[in-house]
Amino acid sequence: MSTSLPPRAARRCHNAVNPLHSVGYFSPDYAREMAALGIEDPRAAYFAGRAAPMGAVGAGAVTASFYNFNHALISRHLPAVWDTAEPADVLAARLRAMDATLRRLLGEEVVASAEMAEAAGLALRAAEACDRSARPLYAAHADLPVPAEPHLAFWHAATLLREHRGDGHLAVLVGAELDAVEAVVSHTASGRGMAPEWVLRTRGWTQEDWTAAQGRLRERGLLDDAGELTDAGTQLRKRIEEETDRLDRAPYEHLGIQGVERLTELAGAWAMTAVGAGAFPSDLFGKG
After folding, report:
1. Which residue, 198, 175, 172, is CA-closest to 185?
2. Bridge-partner residues for 285, per DSSP?
3. Which DSSP state fits 149?
4. N or C end of the chain, less CB within 10 A?
5. Residue 59 belongs to what domain range?
């Protein structure tokens, strides 16, 4: 089905579905499964789990496709992590971790519910209209088999939708001439990104990198002396999101108005449940 969606309906659906993909990165179940493979560093575990669908890739491919991480940080872990665990083993561990995570956060009743099977069907239907072209992370994940269990099929589809939007978003950032650090600095300044402490801790940038990026954004008139977005900066971030929406519209138009509304309703309720169960650190988001 193809139809014209209400403004921002696709973005609202993405914002409801995406947290149910992202919970894995903060899950103790994920850390435990990766440690069982010998991958104990949390950053190595993140890189391995997200990059594994692309195979035993090196740091260059991951820097390009992840975008906002310091290449030096990635190089400390890749390709060395593949000497510890094969990509296929990492993928199997990731799926086991998500099984445990979703059962723990949402409860067995939700996992086994008709609504979960319905959501999986809706999300997979949306993903039918995703496009592999110039979207390396989505394309790699799209080659993976769909898990049989509905809650894992839903998580798989959520991952496809997340990476499809993310790949398009990176193209928009390049077009906006925001480098990796400038992108996260401006996103955080908008009040929607991760807190600076989390960016510095997980992305491999230093405070000096952050300050230098702020200086470059000020020179472009995008950031003021207090580190807040100027009107021009606010408008740029708005255009970035709107262009990302445009590049990501196909899956949700394919799903149709009723399907998008229903998927948003189901996923949004579960995302709230997951947040209430402590799925994310309390200080993850904000300007710091």
Report:
1. 198
2. 194
3. S
4. N
5. 9-276
DSSP H or E stretch at residue 217: helix 207-219
User: Rounded to two decimals, what is the model's pTM?
Assistant: 0.96
* CA 165 to chain centroid: 9
Q: Tokens standing for 80?
A: 């060395």
Instruction: Tell me the residue type at 259.
Output: G
Checking if the pLDDT of 225 tops 90, the result is yes
Give domain status of residue 89, yes or no: yes
pLDDT in tens, 42-60: 999 999 999 999 999 999 9
By three-state DSSP, how is residue 229 classified? strand
Q: Is 107 left (phi over 0), alpha (psi -120 to 50) or beta?
A: left
In a domain, 270, yes or no: yes
- Please tell me the distance from the alpha carbon of residue 118 to that of residue 124, in angstroms, as a whole number: 10
252 located within any domain: yes
163-210 pLDDT, tens per residue?
Answer: 999 999 999 999 999 999 999 999 999 998 889 999 999 999 999 999
| Residues pairing with 32 in the sheet | none
How many domains is the chain built from? 1
284 occurs within a structural domain? no
- Across the chain, where does the E strand assignment appear? none
Q: What is the pLDDT of residues 83-97, one digit of tens each?
A: 999 999 999 999 999
User: Tokens at residue 94, please?
Assistant: 């990731």
Return the structure tokens found at 38: 């010998």
